[in-house]
Automatic annotation (TrEMBL):
<feature type="domain" description="PI4-kinase N-terminal">
    <location>
        <begin position="25"/>
        <end position="323"/>
    </location>
</feature>
<dbReference type="InterPro" id="IPR045495">
    <property type="entry name" value="PI4K_N"/>
</dbReference>
<dbReference type="Pfam" id="PF19274">
    <property type="entry name" value="PI4K_N"/>
</dbReference>
<comment type="similarity">
    <text>Belongs to the PI3/PI4-kinase family. Type III PI4K subfamily.</text>
</comment>
<protein>
    <recommendedName>
        <fullName>PI4-kinase N-terminal domain-containing protein</fullName>
    </recommendedName>
</protein>
<feature type="domain" description="PI4-kinase N-terminal">
    <location>
        <begin position="326"/>
        <end position="574"/>
    </location>
</feature>
<dbReference type="InterPro" id="IPR016024">
    <property type="entry name" value="ARM-type_fold"/>
</dbReference>
Amino acid sequence: MPLLMVCLEGLGKLAQKFPNIASTSIYCLRDFLITPSPILSKLHRQANEKSNKDNLKITAYGNELKAETTKTVSPTLSAFEKLRDAAIENLCHALRAAHTIDQDCVRALVAAVSNRLFTAEKSDSESTLISTNIVIMLGHVAVSMKGTPKTTDTILQFFQQRFCRVPSALDTLIVDQLGCMVISQCEPHVYEVVMKMFTMITVESSSAAYGKSTKDKAQYRHVSRAVINALANIADNVQGEQQMNELLGRLLELFVQLGLEGKRASDKTPGALKASSSAGNLGVLIPVIAVLLRRLPPIKNPKPRIHKLFRDFWLYCVIMGFTASDSGLWPQEWYEGVKEIAVKSPALVSSTSSRSEMRELQYTSAVRNDSVSVNELQELRTQILDLLKHPADITAYVNKLPFAQCTFLLSVYWVETLRVQHSGEPSLVPIISDYLCDSALQKDKAGMWNCVSSVSERVLEKFLEVMKNRPKNEAREADLEQHAQFLLVNFNHQHKQIRRVSDKFLSSLVDRFPHLLWSRRVLWTMLDILQILSYSLQIDPNQETPALRIPETPYTIQLMDTLEAREAIVKDFSAYSEGIIKEAMKWEPHWDAFLRS
């Protein structure tokens, strides 16, 4: 074994030292792999006798590819892989050296192995070993020589021509190699071609699974899992925020496309929508999207396309039942992925929303109102009321909501409750600032603001529970104080609905954590707000209404337009502040400490 390894390494070093004879090294190393060498044949045969199946996992490391097995590796198999990998590595060295003299050396190699593969498949008893070596070898060459003219394109064309021509286990290996070419950041057009291939394979194989399928669609089913694994590897290894965001758009678009295909199939066959076979094909993409989002910061102010895709993503999650942790229908891994996606998802209302946004949901939703049965719609309404604990003030609204608004409300519920429960920094800010302050929701005549307000109460319950279970340390106290500050500021919001919600939230927060009453940070913020509001009475209401910053906080207060409204705000907040101080004075020791500070 050491002698063989030295000889293989020597061929690579000779080619690097003397490029004029690199073609000789290429010829020797190529034949060692695809003739193949008697020692490779012997080791491969012995390894197969001990294990009937080689489960190969191909991973990219910089400009190199490493082949690993998922089972316990026997000494025989280990020796086989070391020899094969050494031959491939030195073949890459020889090709790089030869390319300085002959730019068509890679094309010549691909032509030679194509002919060898054809003859091996026709009559050779070792066709499996030969074909596997050829695919792994070309994958390594593509990664090692990325950016070299006439290299990656040539190998990509070879893979495309060979892929699924006659369905076999070799197709899975080709998918792995294509995925590694993407991970290694080969030329941009290679990325585009491979990602389009993966998208087409996923959609076609999923369509074949829904019911009747053509022969062309069915031919990809045996590689569908390999494609999902390749997408997961790409999501876990792609570099650059721009590239990750572009991949996120592709994955979300593929998810929605599969959902649409499944809905079309379910319309042609009896059965409930969420029980259709499309759910399984959708669910396998959830861990892939979660892997990618795990590496990205929380998404705020997304582009309209990404925002629409996220809204459609959550639509399918709620109607397919992926948000239920105890349904027993889907793997736990999918639910774990949904939780991670919720933490990074943007708010489901647009930052540029218009008054008609809620009404336009029925026209822009991935699933239209007219494609849903009465029973499905009623089931969604019942689900909403159960989650919101049947509040009397919104039951009438929910019972009149169309499908699009029902799924939107369920999506908001699950995104925001899962976000609060599983985020490292749970916050009430999004449900108030992004949703309840949204002008389109406030002006909606179907009662959507009231419904979202009811959702916000459930979010508050989850938040209080999470904060109670957190360790009682300085970090938790700082978070609680910051939320109290936020709610005190919003107690003076321009809109009366937000003032009421903030009052209710602050009361619940203080009931659960009464020590906030004597927090110096909270009390000083309250007094600062009162002072600023008093100062606002001296500002001319005929001038442009300013926004005043609260000291020692990131928040501002937008003043009311009229002097009468400002006076009413000051009066209400003065009475509220007086009540808080009186309550705090019941804790005399703490109050004295505050006064001394």
